[in-house]
Specification:
Beta-galactosidase, Chain A, domain 5, ten-stranded antiparallel sheet, seven-stranded antiparallel sheet
């Protein structure tokens, strides 16, 4: 089936663009954002988290001072692009204005207005093939200022509660004299949190919606993938990790954060010095699978490896 692209209303997100190949579909907001607020098999569950109650909103005096008296950043749910390192209020630009979209030969581009005061313009393209169960998301940032700016692109995917996230550890032991794994831990993260399992081959996070305490960890994910299994479905996020590049947050190319409602799966580009008028890109592949019959036990690396093997080729 050929790719179908149409405007539609979705949930309480207003006007959106739906992209479908008859197997999977994606819905992207254009009244604000943009956000990918749906990704799933046609007629089946949406693996992405939707904040339909607008629970997750950030307002504070520094945002008001920079962006105006009604400034508010809504997470909205789904998939978005930010800039790293995280700063307040620069990162929390209130992207609540309409988005321009354009039809491409293999997908759709989504471009919001330039961020006032920040002088950066963020956008992404969604590329979908016929008969595919995956999409490619090309994230971009353009420096609209007259000064060089230093940023990494930060691709954030919010997924529904109740699942298990698997993050591979670096297995390269060609030089035993040097460390090969970096783990960054945010101040509010309890290192003894029972939701985190740190193994020799895999790090896992088991979501538990009865625990309200937030956590966030980051790693130098040299293998460039992570997965999230929830019920009958698994989402695999892939990207390119550049071993020689400098990454934000003490060298993290992948980060995950957890609330009691959702899990965030984040990949990051290297840090770039972006000259005036120049831009950077960061490409991700998001693949959707029916979960294997063997359940994943997040604290058992034999179970995790069996699950990954049954899932099929991740790389």
């Amino acid at each position: 089936m050929s790719i179908e692209i149409k405007e539609t209303d979705y949930e309480n997100y207003g006007k959106c663009v739906q992209i479908s190949n008859g197997i999977i579909d994606v819905v992207v907001t254009i009244d604000f954002g943009p956000r990918i607020v749906r990704f799933g098999f046609i007629g089946d569950a949406n693996i992405l988290y939707n904040d339909l109650e607008r629970k997750y909103v950030t307002r504070n005096p520094s945002m008001v001072e920079r962006y105006g008296k009604d400034a508010a950043f809504y997470r909205y749910g789904g998939h978005r692009v930010w800039l790293s390192p995280e700063r307040m209020p620069e990162t929390y630009y209130p992207d609540n204005e309409p988005v321009i979209y354009g039809i491409l030969p293999e997908g759709v581009s989504f471009t919001p207005v330039r961020q006032k005061r920040n002088e950066m313009q963020l956008s992404f393209e969604v590329i979908m093939g016929e008969d595919a169960t995956d999409i490619m998301v090309v994230h971009s940032a353009k420096n609209c200022s007259k000064e060089k700016q230093n940023y990494a692109l930060w691709s954030i995917t919010m997924v529904n509660s109740g699942g298990v996230e698997i993050i591979p550890q670096n297995q390269d032991n060609s030089n035993a004299l040097l460390p090969n794994r970096t783990i960054s831990i945010w101040p509010y993260t309890d290192i003894n949190d029972k939701r985190i399992f740190l193994g020799n081959k895999y790090l896992t996070v088991q979501h538990d919606d009865s625990i309200e305490k937030a956590l966030k960890i980051g790693v130098n994910n040299v293998l460039g993938w992570a997965s999230y299994t929830n019920g009958d479905y698994t989402l695999v996020k892939r990207y390119i990790h550049s071993p020689q590049a400098i990454y934000p947050d003490f060298g993290c190319s992948y980060e995950t954060s957890v609330s009691n409602d959702y899990v965030e799966m984040d990949s990051l580009s290297p840090l770039y010095g972006i000259e005036p008028g120049a831009g950077i890109r960061h490409v991700e592949n998001l693949s959707l699978f029916k979960a294997p019959a063997s359940p994943v036990i997040p604290t058992d690396e034999i179970s995790i490896q069996k699950f990954i093997d049954e899932l099929g080729s991740i790389r």
